[in-house]
Amino acid sequence: MEKLKTFETERLLITPTTIKDAKLIYDLMNNPKFIKYVGNRKINSIQKAEKYIEQNIKPQFDRLGYGGYTITTKQGNNKIGTCGLFDRDGLEGIDIGFGLLPEFEGKGYALESAIELRNAAFEVLGIDTISAITNKENKASQKLIERLGLILKGTTKLPDEDTELFLYHQKKTL
Prior knowledge:
The chain is α+β, with helices and mostly antiparallel strands. 33% of the residues lie in helices and 28% in strands.
């Protein structure tokens, strides 16, 4: 099998999320802001985070060669959050998503990693359309998505979800 791609920016390493990242996934998904804006995934132990990675992240990598990535700082080697390209039911195109641990917010890391993955999606991975969804109350996420160049198209609800979300799109330009 072909080795999964990793990405790099001036300050960050962006690597496929694996079982070794279970503590990060646990910490991220139990962050109050994550629960408020994304939802409670009920990842209440490192073991459940490992299972989540095996059942929800690894299969997409196996199928498409891309998915959820762990963001690590080059300086300090800190695992600070995730950024990914997700094939979600109910969305056209591939959804770009991101989340950081609170102590690393506001430093440009989410935008830096999202720009790198958006560019890789179009230039390396052969993706034609990027989508993004966000909670209507999550102003910081909306601002970042707009800085990426995605355009607000309206609202949507994911299958089996009640929350209406803002929906953004960007198509690859030739």
